Q: What sequence folds into this?
């Protein structure tokens, strides 16, 4: 059973990829992505959209964007919303390789 | 549902010389196809390029964005929400992102492209879409990924950080 902490590592990778942040930049998982980390609304949308692309699902229509405010919240949402198989597949993703594939025009699964 | 020019103008505010969707067919909640064209008398061709008029790639992206807007407004209407077609409307659809755009062959004035657009993720008034356009001989001509937002006009103009007011 995947833990929120395991998922948090993967979510942080995706946020770093969206913002093009190096590993030397600290990201507090409880910091507000918009007010404290500095994402604007478009970057926040791109991050949540990319996260769902990697989960292989559409963003649910009833998802409250205000509930997605921190890396911790996003991680808890994934663990609570999706079944173990989906979360395990998410954890197995090589984020860098997937992003490289997307940038080369490859299709997401 | 097939939509002709007059119906398309109910769904998006664009008008001549900057409306490129000639007709459309809503194929479902997430899918639309459409014919887009650029008339030879469009003033853009006087400058792009003198003596060698070709459709700018950005206008093909714009055509895909307009078709995306038609589907978003159509879906909104189906849900009983108002459309965004009139100049007086409070809301407007704006292009907020373009990714992985590629242009596979030149398009000449008077040509028609057959576009297919599929909506992707949506959150907080922002929506992504994948678009492909094909020539009349069915050759792939353009591919791109778009993001659009439905925004309040007053939040876009004069705001110190307009991008953060897109969906307020």
A:
């Amino acid at each position: 059973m995947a833990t929120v902490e395991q998922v948090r590592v993967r979510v942080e990778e995706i946020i770093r990829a969206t913002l093009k942040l190096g590993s030397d930049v600290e990201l507090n998982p409880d910091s507000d992505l918009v007010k404290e980390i500095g994402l604007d609304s478009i970057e926040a949308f791109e991050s949540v959209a990319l996260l769902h692309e990697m989960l292989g699902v559409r963003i649910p229509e009833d998802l409250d964007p205000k509930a997605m405010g921190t890396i911790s919240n996003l991680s808890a949402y994934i663990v609570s919303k999706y079944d173990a198989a989906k979360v395990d597949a998410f954890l197995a993703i090589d984020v860098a390789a997937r992003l490289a594939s997307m940038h080369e025009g490859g299709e997401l699964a | 549902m097939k939509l002709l020019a007059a119906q398309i103008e109910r769904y998006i505010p664009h008008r001549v010389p900057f409306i490129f969707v000639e007709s459309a067919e809503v194929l479902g909640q997430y899918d639309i196809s459409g014919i887009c064209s650029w008339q030879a008398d469009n003033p853009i061709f006087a400058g792009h390029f003198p003596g060698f008029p070709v459709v700018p790639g950005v206008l093909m992206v714009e055509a895909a964005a307009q078709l995306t807007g038609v589907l978003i407004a159509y879906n909104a209407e189906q849900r009983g929400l108002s459309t965004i077609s009139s100049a007086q409307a409070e809301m407007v659809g704006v292009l907020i992102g373009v990714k992985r755009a590629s242009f596979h062959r030149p398009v000449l004035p008077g040509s028609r492209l057959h576009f297919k657009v599929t909506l992707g993720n949506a959150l907080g008034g922002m929506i992504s879409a994948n678009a492909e356009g094909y020539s009349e001989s069915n050759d792939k001509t353009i591919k791109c990924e778009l993001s659009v937002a439905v925004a309040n006009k007053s939040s876009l103009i004069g705001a110190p950080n307009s991008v953060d007011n897109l969906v307020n």
User: Anything to note?
Assistant: The mean pLDDT of chain B is 89.
